[in-house]
Amino acid sequence: MEITMPNHQAIMETYNRFPVTLVKGKGSHVWDDQGHQYLDFTSGIATCNLGHVPDYVHEKLTAQVDTLWHCSNLYHIPPQQALAQLLVDHSCADQVFFCNSGAEANEGAIKLARKWGRETKGEQAYNIITFKQSFHGRTLATLSATGQAKIQQGFAPLVQGFQYLPYNDSDALETIDYDTTCAILLEVVQGEGGVLPADPDWLTKLASICQKKNMLLMIDEVQTGMGRTGELFGYQHFSIEPDVFTLAKGLGSGFPIGAVLAKQHVAKQFQPGTHGSTFGGNPLAVTAGLATLEYMLAHNIASQANELGLYLNSKLAPLVANYSIVEAIRGMGLLKGLLVSEQAAEIVAAARAQRLLILLAGPNVVRILPPLTTTKMEIDQAVGILESIFKKGLMADVKSNI
Ligand SMILES: Cc1ncc(COP(=O)(O)O)c(C=O)c1O
């Protein structure tokens, strides 16, 4: 078959795209325009948590497509109310604001924290503590919140009022100026920053400082939410309750949607005129979100992700034992990182050549994000491909005991 190069000249080059054009997906698999089938252990970057085109969401979304696409937030939208209620019923939040992406959700959380700080502590309390190697998005405020210089490069002047502390460092928490700080914002597993989970003791201490010193605890659950870590929301692994948390990615099974969820004492800072979005919570997006969450709850998808995560761990552990290039496994549930001493990008490319899609998380972490509906057989297949790559000597330095 003749291969035609896709014409992408009119697309801004914000991504280094792989030489693959995907045209179809179902369950854990996607197909390219040449008819090749791939095992997709990226889930569209932690988004298609129920696999591609899940039947239940497809059915609900198709019905909504025939009914009403958009009407604006000047009117009540029943599936929006139902999704908000279900999220509130299954989390520590009392109210929800819907938007369209992870960055927009974090942007909303930042605005909410600033308003809360000003109203309850005074106008000096606008600073937000975030962490080195964090990732919170690409808008001006969220890239300013992100603790990575490479994300911020070229966009100065940044939005003021962010201070970056080292992650998992208890001593650093002592340096916070409580009077001028309104919130601490963090991921419970740093996803883009290298699949690095929070130390439970550190997180408990951080939460207790927030409570004692009157600062909001805000969790960015854009990547860790919607069952990915083996709980519906990542914070539920820890004995903490955020005042605010954000969702996107897995919430809509691939349909764009984001959400800011907050306890009442914070949520009440948003009143008519303070925040908004034309598309946020539109009938199609919230129908996708509602169907996704209903399915997840009815089928215990989060605990399934936990179980499959343990299984994936047990299969990856021998790679650490047998191949010196593989240094450690990190992560929670089905958000996994293989820390490698070199060549992470080559491993991802070699896997793609064998029709397995995986991701990077920084220069030396291979990120594995299967759909939460994957099977043990698919996990065996993926780990088998990874092992064959190490075995074939793509990595020169293979331990002598194999
Ligand atoms: C933790 C986290 N926050 C925010 C974002 C930004 O989300 P979006 O790309 O939907 O704006 C991401 C995206 O990777 C993320 O992983």
Percent strand equals 15-25%
What is the CATH domain class of the largest domain? Alpha Beta
Report the mean per-residue pLDDT as an integer: 95
* Major β-sheet profile: 7 strands, mixed
What does the model show?
The chain has 402 residues and is an alpha/beta fold. It is 35% helix and 18% strand. It has 2 domains: 22-54 and 301-391, Alpha-Beta Complex (Aspartate Aminotransferase, domain 1), CATH 3.90.1150; 68-298, 3-Layer(aba) Sandwich (Aspartate Aminotransferase, domain 2), CATH 3.40.640.10. The chain is built from 13 helices and 17 strands. The strands form 4 sheets. Strands 4-12-11-10-7-5-6 form a 7-stranded mixed β-sheet, sandwiched between helices. The chain has a 4-stranded mixed β-sheet with strand order 1-2-3-15. The chain has a 4-stranded antiparallel β-sheet with strand order 13-14-17-16. Strand 2 (29-32) and strand 3 (37-40) form a beta hairpin. The chain starts with 21 loop residues before the first strand and ends in an 11-residue tail after the last helix.
List the helices and strands and how they pair.
Elements: E1 22-26, E2 29-32, E3 37-40, H1 43-46, H2 55-65, H3 78-89, E4 95-99, H4 102-120, E5 127-131, H5 140-145, H6 149-152, E6 162-165, H7 170-173, E7 181-186, E8 189-190, E9 196-197, H8 200-212, E10 216-220, E11 244-247, E12 258-262, H9 264-267, H10 283-298, H11 301-322, E13 326-332, E14 335-340, H12 344-353, E15 356-357, E16 359-360, E17 365-368, H13 376-391
Parallel strand pairs: 3-15, 5-6, 5-7, 7-10, 10-11
Antiparallel strand pairs: 1-2, 2-3, 4-12, 8-9, 11-12, 13-14, 14-17, 16-17
Helix pairs in contact: 2-10, 3-10, 11-13
Residues 101-103, 106, 135-137, 187, 191-192, 220, 222-223, 248 line the site of pyridoxal-5'-phosphate.
